[in-house]
Specification:
The structure is a homotetramer of 323-residue chains. Chain A has 323 residues and is of the alpha/beta class. Chain A folds into two domains: 265 residues, HybD-like (Rossmann fold), CATH 3.40.50.1450; 44 residues. Chain A is 42% helix and 20% strand. In chain A, strands 1, 2, 3, 4, 5, 6, 7, 8 and 9 form a nine-stranded mixed beta sheet that branches. In chain A, a hairpin with a 2-residue loop joins strand 1 and strand 2. In chain A, helix 3 crosses helix 12. The longest helix of chain A is centred in the last third of the chain and has 20 residues. The model of chain A has no long low-confidence stretch (mean pLDDT 87). Chains A and B meet through helix 9, helix 10, helix 11, strand 9 and helix 12 of A and helix 9, helix 10, helix 11, strand 9 and helix 12 of B.
């Protein structure tokens, strides 16, 4: 069956809700709006919820700011601050913890480069605390950062590299940053998902990720993701569904046409979509200006993370520590 | 009406042929196949042909090598050589001419950066012939090259910049390189179109280009283009057409369903597509590895152009002259 | 004779002053200090001054902020504002003028890429005023921008390209940005020179520039430059001079040793330096972190220029207009 | 005392030989010339040799090809082949080994980016052998590759990251690539050193490296390095020494001047050099076109390594496997 691709819990829920009344069993949802920023917290409570949603038990907080598509420094600052708040809320991070920030994805593939690009502006301090403990003392969080690359570039599973470094430097918390696939173009580079479940196998837009989570690492993992692409198959699927729905509205229930449409099953649709997109696999849909959008949103992510991890540093001090 | 977007003459013809018997009036087509390279020459003979095709009178030669999607040095060399042959055939270029090569497009937008990337490896000699005429003498073609950027970056129409430089340095021939939009994903980075009509207003994937042609510059213009994106709207449209066609095949002609489908006009389709893609404009579909594909095909283009313009230089000599 | 290389008027003056009492005839100097920013205005009044200084008659204002080597957002903002003030003072620019900003230098050579990098963040508005005169009306300065490349890349003299575009779009003012050579390492990326004389032949760190000035373009030219390299020959020369001076201080005037040293002429020194640096020409000295320094100082330059040209735009509005 | 900085064994030997007759005790030297490529093998036999040379016991093979400064495809191919030969000779690598290639250095600092740039074109196969053992079978060497970054970027000692990954994936051989400092400008980007001693603490041009060798990793380590910078202090020192020597030749032995010069000790010289270069530390001397040189030499390195590790793959097959 054709599977609409999404890495966002809010969209997995929307898709379910589309065909059902009431909330998903085993799932709690809490929404709030602050001016032009919407916060949606989806909590998967139990195995039922996890199964329906196709995602592990845990919290998924989404920060949605559609106006990020227009440059607006004030909004960008606000979203960065909101991200910091969400990270602090979901992780109980504090300056006494050692934190490892991991930028997942392939730096050679523009929409997959979000993680590595974000890492570039993380305030890295672990070595400074070791080299100059008096100057970088107790009020500084010991942060390290790396972009491990992807399997096709290194020949090593990303999860293997992360696991080996975690075992070596023993952080108290791991934060991952990853580019995601969404099913709605309006979410591209305007929505941030923060979850305490880590990375599940198969998510992310690049080479399918292996699990990077509490279970695999033995350390809590906060996963931060931003959708940067929509699968081309999703666009084709949406077009077909819109046509179906338009046709159905124009024919009487019970008529022969209605029955044809009703009986067109997922396999038929999948075959159609494959035909449209053949012979390419891995076709993605992005806004033309994706290079610029990645640059902006990665800057917001790094600011948010820095604010969460280093409450005792001024912006100037952070800038001096960024390379 | 929704307009399927293509910059390729072979596709404009295919789309017309799809609904009609026989060749397009005023259009000649000649095809040949050399192993895994197909050459299609579309000649638009008169105003009738130009109107139907939506393109100016002239020759459009397409080099199609689907296997370019797999790295194959031998095939790449062969395509570069074929491109050189086509350029020589379509332009009567010779080493006594002064040639200006223009890389169109926006270097900050990966799929639009084809032109600027190609320029990087053009063998530039105009200054050498002036500075050292004895060493770089009569058997060297005087080549200059530039990437003028796009309107949004410079505030100046690309055509204005090109025109002003052409008026100043007075080349005998202008060659442009541009990223195109195709309607078939299998043509992305595997098809090269060479035409002697120059650039028409509105073509190219970036900011719509103004005319850069014999009429505007007073100099012959060879336009080389490679499709690097498909409009997302094209994918949505194709999905809808496939569904229509599938449904039509399942219903009897004259039945009520058939009539509904028959009567679904272009405007209905356009409205559907807009709904699927809203609110983004400028959504593009590309293979995920587009960064790499652009790198490879731009290298083939520069080699082909260098071979066409500098028949008296060895590959080593060319390499020493490339920066 | 070996010629210490500097593009800074303040250094040309220092070098003269080193061997002479009093100010240079035909040259006025005015210094002021504002906290950690020093402003030096060198005015070359007449041909005598021009000949001694090796630079054309005109004003050369230098902004020196040695602390720029440490990231300090407040200082960076202050220097950007100071640059805006200096530009406005030296050029009588106003929002009714059409301004063309030119980023000189080779984007492939890190320390020469200052001009092109600065251009990336210039607020470009010329096309907006033409396309949407009501929205981008009388209070917006019509700014265009380009990085014409260097002779080795384009085969065309930079001055030719600039001249042809200026003739076409007829700006009221041209502003150039260029990487310079200094003779003092402490000035690298910490000193900005603004002059109303344009670019003289032979200056800049890249391929020697041709003249880009009022005389060649028919339009006033403000040249903004920042030293990014010291010639390796300068370092070698300084080492030798320090040794000479140390030796001279240790021997009595009139002694044989003193005479030997006194008689070691410039040619001897030049031969020594050539021997040290052979066989490379074009050796440059830079701080190891030059990539980062170029990024920071180019950001300050673009902010200062934007502030000078667009007094009626907010920072947010500028950001939305930058690509 | 001022220490002339070199990471090359051949230069450490030259510096010693400058002041002494005969070969260094505990050191063997073997030179051969093949057209325009010179191979020098320096073997440090015992602790005496190690102490004098300031380098660990082992083999250091240097490939010197001064003509690499001119683009010459044939020479580049020859040097790549020679590098493959040297690697095979010094390491007894074979296709049944698992090899990890490490690109040391900071990708944001042009002359330090040699290692990471080389990694980009290494044929990576470890995952393919695991995923498709039948297709990528016994005749393919299992190669993985990574660029771990530098301490200032990650907050983690490079050696720690390498050690943790080596412990995890257990390669049979580690190959490191690193940018070096030379004391001769003519060696920049034209000399390749291959040694079986691994990386000693404090070498490399970037942040001083920690040891990456047999002792620290428990696996043989082949270190490949190319000089990309000369310390500015070396240039200043050379200038002073040339002057000294010139002066000494002009004065009689025993004269007062001769004695002054003779008594000018290393500390005096060091003070002079510090004065010339103050206040910058970390000043480097490079050719202006260093960006281009790094690109070329890193391509030669990756080709040489690929040839050594994958004798059973054709060039086309390698290209298809490179990302």
């Amino acid at each position: 069956m054709f599977n609409i691709r999404t890495d966002l819990a809010v969209e997995a829920r929307e898709m379910y809700k589309g065909g059902h009344a009431g909330e998903i069993p085993g799932v709690l949802v809490d929404e709030s709006q602050d001016d032009n920023i919407k916060i949606v917290k989806v909590t998967i409570l139990d195995d039922d919820g996890a199964k329906t949603m196709g995602k592990p038990i845990g919290d998924y907080i989404t920060i949605e700011a559609p106006d990020l598509r227009y440059r607006d420094i004030e909004l960008e600052d606000k979203v960065a601050q909101k991200l910091a708040d969400v990270i602090k809320k979901i992780s109980n991070v504090n300056v006494n913890m050692k934190v490892l920030v991991i930028g997942l994805g392939n730096w050679n593939v523009t929409p997959d480069a979000l993680g590595p690009k974000t890492i570039e502006n993380i305030v890295v301090t672990r070595h400074l605390k070791e080299l100059a403990p008096l100057q970088f003392g107790e009020n500084i969080c010991a942060v390290s950062a790396m972009a491990p690359g992807v399997l096709g570039i290194t020949g090593i599973e990303t999860a293997e590299i992360v696991k080996s470094v975690v075992d070596k430097i023993k952080p108290d918390l791991v934060i991952t940053i990853d580019a995601l696939a969404s099913r709605r173009v309006e979410r591209l580079a305007t929505t941030i998902q923060v979850s305490n479940t880590g990375i599940s196998p198969g998510s992310g837009i690049g080479n399918k990720r292996s699990a990077i989570n509490m279970e695999s690492l033995g350390v809590p993992v906060i996963a931060i993701g931003v959708p940067t692409v929509v699968d081309a198959a999703t666009i084709a699927n949406d077009a077909i569904e819109h046509l179906e729905s338009a046709l159905k509205n124009n024919v009487e229930s019970g008529s022969p046409l209605y029955n044809v449409l009703k009986n067109m099953n997922d396999e038929d649709k999948y075959a159609l979509i494959r035909e449209v997109l053949s012979p390419e696999e891995n076709l993605i849909v992005t806004p033309k200006e994706i290079d610029l959008l990645i640059k902006n949103i990665s800057s917001i992510l790094s600011r948010g993370i820095n604010l969460a991890l280093q409450p005792n540093l001024t912006v100037d001090e952070m800038n001096q520590l960024v390379h």
